[in-house]
Amino acid sequence: MAKPQNTPAFGKLRFVWKRLVNEDANLSRGAKQMASCLCDTYVNKDTGRCWPKTPHWQSACVDKRTVQLHIKMLE
User: Fold this and answer.
1) Nearby residues of 58 by Cβ (< 8 Å), 6 or more positions away
2) What are the two backbone dihedrals, phi and then psi, of residue 50, each rounded to the nearest 5 degrees?
3) What is this structure's pTM?
4) What letters, b where the CB count within 10 A reaches 16 and e where it falls short, cover 23-47?
5) Which of 7, 11, 24, 42 could bridge to 52 as Cys pair (CB 3.0-4.6 Å)?
6) What are phi and psi of 43, to 5 degrees?
7) Rounded to whole angstroms, how far apart are CA atoms 23 and 67?
């Protein structure tokens, strides 16, 4: 799948997004850490979308409700 011509490179957008997330005073530290991990590990580099499965996060010793809360904050 070809990238749209007018879309900046994923790498550049990723760092801008991560900076904006880290500067957001309304997000918890956990939500910011989750955002960083999602961006670095699970994002589709062609589309910029991310769809990780919650069970993976549970296996990382994170409660399902905590994961859902962080995702809701990030949305």
Assistant:
1) 64, 67
2) -135, 125
3) 0.64
4) eeeebeeebbebbeebbeeebeeee
5) 42
6) -75, 140
7) 20
